[in-house]
Amino acid sequence: MDTKRYLAFILTPFCFRLLSLMQDQQKAYTYAVFVVLMWSTIASAFKFSLRYLDYAQLLFYATAVSTFTLFTILLIQNKIGLLRGCTFRDCVYSLLLGFLNPFLYYVVLLRAYSLLPAQQAMALNYTWAIQLVLLSIPLLRQSIGLKSVLAVIISYLGVVIIATRGDFAGLRFFNPTGVLLALGSAVIWALFWIFNIKDRRDEVAKLFLNFVFGFVFIVIYMMLTGRFTIPNLPGFLGAAYVGIFEMGITFVLWLKALRLSRTTAQVSNLIYLTPFFALVFINLFVGERILASTVIGLAFIVSGILLQKYPFQKK
Predict the structure, then answer these.
(1) Which position among 17, 38, 66, 300 has the lowest Cβ density within 10 Å, counted as fewest Cβ atoms?
(2) What is the mean pLDDT of residues 224-238?
């Protein structure tokens, strides 16, 4: 090994050297596990940040950071030219998607987090995969079989367990407004996912444009509600963390993991660990006592999602 190569090897961060020695499948697992761990911390980051900012302020600063992060990724990937090739129709589509996400989705979701314990908001938001099944019937004209109907019933049984905190017999819902907002955010995300499927543009480029338009909606919302304030340092750091690891770099790494993996199922199945890891982080960092009803209800929700998923995968 010559001197230049030796110095380059010494100066390269250890994690990048390690990645360079891995096979593609090992890299895929490494990226996927990192993303799952980061996404697992987001519910805690939401709740921490909401101690210093209200939901609209958190969304404003997080979206600003994520938009800058996505622009930086486009620069690094040499994809800025893709933005110049956008047609008027592309911009209109990004306007629609940007309204759904990040604007409407996070306004509703963060408002739910401000009203509910983090464990409940996170678990109820996780029903988006089931909402996707229901919305695909009218929007994608897909039919669902008996297993999918059973999956929906099982998942919504989990919703009732979480929303009633285990008082299943009395059906006494705690903070029904927060529950409806958390479930509503799942519907919005499912809508965004369906419309996003139809958009064949580069994923990072279209996500950046979505966030640019979404940020405009957020600025208008802030102006109309008079919520704009300068955050203190903990509030801004929390918003920056959300912007980078919820909306920005993790999305790109997840796509990279899917591309490197021999099959998407080998890494995509790891995503079902996210809500359970999130409960651990919520307990550690937020200090919430994790209710048995949350764990049981979440198990029902994930079981329903898995029951719905695998019959379609076989087909």
Answers:
(1) 17
(2) 90
170-193 pLDDT per residue, tens: 556 778 999 999 999 999 999 998
Contact 155, 126 (CB under 8 A): no
Secondary element (H or E) of residue 244? helix 233-245
Max Cα distance, the chain (Å): 75
Residue with tokens 């805690």, as numbered in its chain: 44
Here the tokens at position 7 are 């110095």
C-alpha closest to that of 79 among 260, 253, 209: 209
Cα 225 to its chain centre, rounded Å, is 26
Distance CA 47, CA 236 (A): 13
Segment 146-165 shows an average pLDDT of 89
Please state, in angstroms and rounded to a whole number, the distance separating the CA atoms of residues 239 and 230: 12
Categorize the per-residue pLDDT at 3 as very low, low, confident or very high, splitting at 50, 70 and 90. Answer: very low
In the chain, where the domains are located: 25-197+204-314
* Tens-digit pLDDT profile for residues 279-310: 999 999 999 999 999 999 999 999 998 887 76
| Torsional class of 78: left (φ above 0), alpha (ψ -120 to 50), beta (otherwise) | left
Decide: 242 and 42 in contact? Cβ < 8 Å. yes
| Phi, psi (degrees; rounded to nearest 5) at 248 | -115, -95
Q: Let me know: does 100 contact 160? Beta carbons within 8 Å.
A: no
